[in-house]
What we know:
Helices cover 46% and strands 14% of the residues. It is an alpha/beta fold. Strands 1-2-3-5-8-9-10-12 form an eight-stranded parallel β-barrel, surrounded by six helices. Strands 6-7 form a two-stranded antiparallel sheet. Helix 6 links the parallel strand 8 and strand 9. The termini are close together.
Amino acid sequence: xxxxxxxxxxxxxxxxLPELRDLETAxxxxxxxxxxxxxxxxxxxxxxxxxxxxxxxxxxxLNVYSRSPALLAMTAAGCDHLSGGRFALxxxxxxxxxxxxxHGVEYRRPTARIRETIDxxxxxxxxxxLRYEGRSVVVPLPPDQxxxxxxxxxxxxxxxxxxxxxxxxxLGDLSVAAAAEVADGWLPFFxxxxxxxxxxxxxxxxxxxxxxxxxxRLDVVASVHVxxxxxxxxxxxLRPARSHIALYAGGMGSRxxxxxxxxxxxxxxxxxxxxxxxxxxxxxxxxxxxxxxxDWLALGNLVGPEGWVAxxxxxxxxAGVTTLDITVVGGADPVRTVETLRRLM
Length: 345
């Protein structure tokens, strides 16, 4: 398995550069940069491209509404050029709270929008004249919707690669199946190996059967918290993960529309998902966090002695994970943690 790390919205990329260089040397394969309604991810990617040499750089994620499909393609081509072919375009739908509330753009047909954006990006990278008619994306703009002067254009520059990897942050059955069919990689949000089959198995199988063999194997990127050692207080170390799950499954969205809560139910924690949502929406955040199942935390992360972590690494690999996105907790040295994980794999 490859190892990656994610820089969240709040982290200062410039301040962390010495550490990130050390992690590159230690063998971290990729860095992902988040973007919600924070500083943009693209400028951070450009900075990292100029100050690293080997490590792959990706967005996790850019939403497909606030930038046009062609602009996403241009941006990815530019990042790939500046990084010497090390860029991966992570895409997702975000949600109506961000897309409509922050960007003022209508949130419609998310699965179609992402799929068609991927089509457009690949056309742009191949430098084909851009003419596309989909359910969500139509380029050029039809004459009855504009001046009528639009015409198909192709990218002026020649990209470093015509096949920049595209990763899809997919949650629901339709989007997971589509990701397995057309994307280079998949960014699941919640992943517990023992629950992955019931949550994602049917959708992944459906999409994989339609997948073009030329795309190669789907890169499955699962996020985990990591602390390795004897006598660790796993409950305390995983408290941030507990709060994180409660925030998303309980409060990220409305009672009528919370994709993360739906996913928790698909994973088999229907009762607990209802409790988390009821408590969180009632303002009882601590109680919502307490409702997160302990086995979710234990099996979905890598916290414990080396023997336990080795067993869990094997479980993630058996479940189809090809990249582990790690967050080192408990004040451990990230470089030493990466080295230990490499030894245990």
